[in-house]
């Protein structure tokens, strides 16, 4: 077959004829040339939006056409009904409806994609006509699809098959509520349609029940019935009117071909929160769920994961969605208890997740919901429920610990890395460290991202139900385990019990628990030769760091285990994070252990036991430790710690740059940054009263140890930068060392300001980089108000500004990060110290223009920074004479730039930032803004040819009326931007 001529080839637009449309569709589907496909796609889009679309779509649906052509015709119908309904005369509505019904009947034998699209088109038409014009669409559709009706003229022989009629009708009834759900509708219209559709549910429900119960209905028909019910449940049809149909769905679970669809339908139906209003219907459904228990047991016995998974979903949906309602039905308490035990059976399903089973994870959110509902009752009722359900929760603890067991090491080693990661998440999720119970739950249950509650979470929630008795239970079991050589040989049992302790201690305040001292005493008895057990021991110790801070005498038995773990690469994450938590929480009690901690840490660093990120954590831990030592020891210990790394850095600074050297340099600088992030000696005087200066050198008493070190390594850093000045990573790493230091030390960093300011000016003049500007901004933020530093800061500001303005003159487009940091820097100056702008030393006009240029960048952070710059500049224009001159001279340019962006020159996602600039102009110089708006908007075609003079005038007047309401200004700018882009009313 020869390919047709290309409709996009010629300079003249081809007519939207059937022949040309078929040619374009051929190109779209079969032409290998991507350029031809793109032309065809664009041309076909124009065809669908044309006035001729109402006519040619029927010709494309002819029986002799290819399925792709027929599908395009049906899609065109749907698009026109959806977006161009008003262009069809009302006297043609009935004709359109009859044609659509006839074509649906004709295509009931296929192709399926064409049938579905025609059904969607008729559903869209129904939504346009309900209820005023078409009051009973469902009843009319059912009548139209009776095989004996003469309305099917023109239908094919296949369309006379009653089953095909039935399937076509079910397809139509399925897509009707789906089309309603997906349509963009105003709330009043949505409510009106929802009510009208609910009124039609009786007809649908009766028909679906009849088809589902009929012995003559095929599997295909019954599956379609189930899908149709799921679709209608989405429009909130009341359970009180559909519970008998839902009950019928349980019968489909016995048929393997219908099982999956029946599960989806039942889960969808009973998961609607509105179902809680129909208590009797829910209570009647519980026995049906319980009736699946035998089928569930058999599936588990036969290792039929699909069936057990599906039945578990139904049980959990019933229990989780309606636990409070079912708890309140006290006369049915035994049935609900049976449902709870059925879910417990699902939690305890044999096998290891995710290799041998995937069912148990479905149940974990239910256990939170149930305990939360029980604990929400008033005290008297709560006591009754606790009497019934506490024993279940103790069983649950056993089950959870059993499910958290690692498999035998031989089996575990055969697992894929993905399976191991899934098992880790199933046990403890993504977190280490303290969790807030309510906040954690809210984040998981309200967040739009997918989540899964893990075993650790569930144990944490169980504690809310069982309290201190749970910890005592775990402690007794752990004690028996460790005292019996046969029991302690099974390391998985010990690990699971420790995992239970850790899960609870991560969140719950265990400071007053009487079992924790015993637990601390038991931990050193544990043989940590197994890596997984050792990992959990480390995390358990870390979870008790706050308790150890209140009971420092217990550190002696625990700390050696942590330091021993520090030397094992396989325990890197757990041992380092645990040491960091201990150093943070217990730092004032670690003086007698400082030598051992520092020695083990330095040994681990020298032997390169840990990866880079763990080295950073370790240095943070040591920063906490050093912060609490007596002042006369800090500098000595600090020198001892960093000397090997400084010496290595010194050696690297003399070598020729290469990738290996660079990696080592960045790593060492990163460790110094991490150390200086937490090394803060300013608070130690509160704890160590006599931390005397009598035994310390004067310099140690008057200067912060970090400052002393920074001053000592300053020449080395300058040497290093002389070789690596053009490498942004190295420069950023150097700047981060000083940035972390100044953030931690604040005013104590003062002695370094002059030296650092000079160096920053030199390196930035040679090679401008954003990290230099960011560090300068931090210095200005802290020291701009101190007279002794103002001269150095002013000199630094002038150097940075002149160098950056020179870059802007050359063209800054390739440096959005520098433009962003430059705008943030000057926003900070305007906020903290606007008098840094000396009249003869800073070119404010060029600075203003750099802000305007930054507003034109497509990068959101740069535009945001520029808008912040103007937000700080505009309130001060009257106070700084030079600024006033610049604004009066170039304010029109700023206004024109913002309007151009709003009119289509910038992405719509940036409109919020441009609206803030306009609000600032209107708030602080309204008369000038009014003048600039008038002058710029009178230009024909500006900011867009899509807006009229009247629309521009309206926008200007609306904007000038708002000087305080930020939200309203954003709305005005957004609406005008849509007008300028021709998008108003298009659904954006």
UniProtKB/TrEMBL annotation:
One of its GO terms (biological process) is protein import into nucleus. Residues 40-106 form the Importin N-terminal domain. GO terms for cellular component: cytoplasm; nucleus. It is found in: Cytoplasm; Nucleus. GO terms for molecular function: small GTPase binding. SUPFAM superfamilies: ARM repeat. Signal peptide: none annotated. Keywords: Cytoplasm, Nucleus, Protein transport, Repeat, Transport. InterPro entries: ARM-like, ARM-type_fold, Exportin-1/Importin-b-like, Importin-beta_N, Importin_beta-like_NTR, Importin_rep_1, Importin_rep_2, Importin_rep_3. Interacts with UBC9, RAN, RBM8A, eIF-1A and PAX6. Belongs to the importin beta family. This is Importin-13. It comes from Takifugu flavidus.
């Amino acid at each position: 077959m020869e390919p047709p001529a290309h409709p996009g080839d010629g300079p003249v637009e081809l007519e939207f004829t059937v022949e040309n449309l078929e040619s374009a569709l051929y190109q779209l589907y079969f032409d290998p040339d991507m350029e031809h496909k793109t032309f065809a796609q664009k041309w076909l889009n124009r065809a669908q939006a044309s006035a001729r679309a109402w006519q040619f779509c029927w010709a494309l649906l002819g029986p002799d056409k290819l399925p792709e052509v027929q599908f395009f015709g049906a899609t065109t119908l749907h698009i026109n009904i959806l977006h161009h309904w008003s262009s069809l005369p009302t006297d043609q509505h009935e004709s359109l409806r009859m044609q659509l019904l006839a074509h649906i009947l004709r295509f009931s034998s296929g192709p399926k994609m064409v049938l579905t699209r025609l059904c969607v088109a008729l559903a869209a038409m129904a939504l346009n006509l309900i209820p005023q014009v078409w009051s009973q669409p469902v009843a009319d559709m059912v009548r139209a699809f009776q095989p004996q009706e003469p309305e099917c003229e023109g239908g094919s022989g296949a369309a006379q098959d009653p089953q095909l009629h039935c399937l076509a009708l079910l397809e139509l009834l399925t897509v009707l509520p789906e089309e309603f759900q997906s349509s963009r509708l105003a709330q009043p219209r949505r409510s009106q349609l929802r009510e009208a559709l609910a009124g039609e549910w009786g007809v649908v429900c009766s028909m679906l029940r009849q088809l589902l119960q009929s012995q003559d209905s095929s599997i295909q028909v019954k599956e379609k019935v189930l899908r149709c019910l799921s679709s209608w449940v989405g429009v909130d049809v009341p359970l009180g009117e559909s519970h008998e149909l839902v009950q019928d769905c349980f019968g489909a679970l016995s048929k393997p071909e219908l099982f999956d669809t029946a599960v989806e339908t039942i889960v969808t139906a009973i998961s609607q929160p509105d179902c809680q209003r129909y208590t009797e219907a829910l209570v009647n459904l519980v026995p049906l769920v319980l009736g699946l228990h035998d089928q569930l047991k058999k599936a588990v016995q036969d290792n039929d994961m699909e069936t057990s998974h599906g039945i578990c979903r139904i049980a959990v949906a019933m229990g989780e969605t309606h636990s409070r309602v079912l708890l309140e039905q006290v006369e049915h308490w035994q049935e609900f208890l049976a449902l709870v035990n059925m879910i417990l059976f699902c939690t305890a399903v044999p096998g290891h997740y995710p290799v041998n089973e995937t069912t148990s994870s479905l149940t974990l959110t239910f256990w939170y919901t149930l305990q939360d509902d029980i604990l929400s009752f008033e005290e008297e009722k709560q006591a009754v429920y606790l009497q019934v359900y506490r024993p279940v929760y103790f069983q649950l603890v056993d089950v959870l610990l059993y499910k958290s067991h690692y498999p035998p090491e031989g089996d575990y080693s055969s697992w894929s890395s993905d399976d191991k990661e899934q098992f880790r998440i199933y046990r403890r999720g993504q977190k280490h460290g303290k969790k807030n119970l309510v906040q954690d739950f809210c984040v998981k249950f309200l967040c739009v991202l997918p989540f899964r509650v893990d075993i650790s979470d569930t144990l944490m929630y169980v504690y809310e139900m069982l309290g201190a008795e749970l910890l005592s239970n775990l402690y007794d079991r752990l004690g028996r385990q460790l005292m019996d050589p046969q029991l302690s040989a099974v390391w998985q049992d010990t690990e699971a019990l420790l995992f239970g302790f850790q899960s609870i201690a991560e969140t719950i305040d265990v400071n007053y628990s009487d079992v924790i001292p015993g637990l601390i005493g038991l931990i050193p008895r544990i043989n940590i030769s197994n890596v997984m057990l050792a990992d959990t021991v480390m995390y358990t110790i870390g979870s008790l760091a706050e308790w150890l801070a209140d009971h420092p005498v217990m550190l002696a038995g625990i700390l050696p285990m942590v330091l021993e773990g520090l030397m094992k690469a396989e325990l890197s994450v757990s041992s380092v994070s645990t040491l960091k938590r201990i150093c943070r929480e217990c730092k004032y009690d670690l003086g007698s252990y400082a030598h051992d901690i520092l020695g083990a840490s330095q040994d681990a660093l020298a032997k390169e036991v840990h990866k880079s990120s763990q080295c950073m954590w370790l240095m943070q831990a040591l920063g906490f430790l050093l912060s609490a030592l007596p002042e006369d020891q800090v500098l000595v210990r600090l020198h001892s710690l960093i000397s090997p790394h400084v010496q290595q850095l010194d050696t690297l600074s003399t070598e020729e740059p290469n990738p290996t050297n660079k990696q080592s340099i960045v790593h060492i600088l990163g460790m110094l940054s991490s150390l200086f992030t937490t090394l803060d000696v300013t608070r130690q005087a509160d704890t160590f009263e006599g931390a005397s200066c009598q035994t310390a050198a004067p310099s140690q008493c008057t200067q912060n140890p970090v400052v002393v070190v920074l001053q000592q390594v300053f020449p080395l850093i300058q040497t290093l930068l002389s070789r690596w000045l053009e490498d942004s990573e190295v420069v950023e790493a150097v700047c981060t060392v000083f940035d972390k230091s100044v953030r931690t030390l604040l005013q104590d960093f003062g002695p370094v300001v002059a030296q650092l300011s000079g160096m920053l000016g030199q390196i930035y003049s040679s090679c401008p980089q954003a990290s230099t500007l960011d560090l300068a901004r931090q210095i200005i933020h802290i020291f701009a108000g101190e007279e002794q530093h103002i001269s150095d800061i002013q000199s630094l500001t002038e150097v940075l500004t002149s160098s950056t303005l020179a870059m802007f003159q050359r063209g800054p487009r390739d440096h959005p990060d520098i433009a962003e940091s430059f705008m943030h820097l000057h926003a900070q100056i305007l906020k903290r110290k606007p008098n840094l702008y000396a009249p003869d030393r800073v070119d404010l006009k060029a600075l203003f223009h750099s802000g305007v240029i930054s507003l034109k960048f497509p990068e959101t952070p740069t535009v945001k920074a520029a808008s912040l710059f103007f937000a700080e500049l505009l309130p001060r224009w009257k106070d700084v004479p030079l600024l006033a001159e610049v604004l009066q001279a170039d304010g029109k340019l700023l206004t024109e730039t913002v309007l151009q962006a709003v009119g289509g020159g910038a992405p719509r996602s940036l409109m919020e930032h441009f609206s803030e600039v306009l609000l600032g102009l209107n708030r602080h110089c309204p008369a000038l803004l009014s003048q600039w708006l008038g002058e710029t908007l009178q230009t024909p075609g500006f900011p867009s040819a899509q807006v009229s003079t009247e629309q521009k005038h309206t926008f200007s007047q609306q904007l000038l009326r708002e000087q305080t309401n930020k939200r309203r200004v954003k709305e005005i700018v957004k609406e005008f931007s849509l007008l300028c882009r021709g998008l108003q009313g298009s659904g954006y």
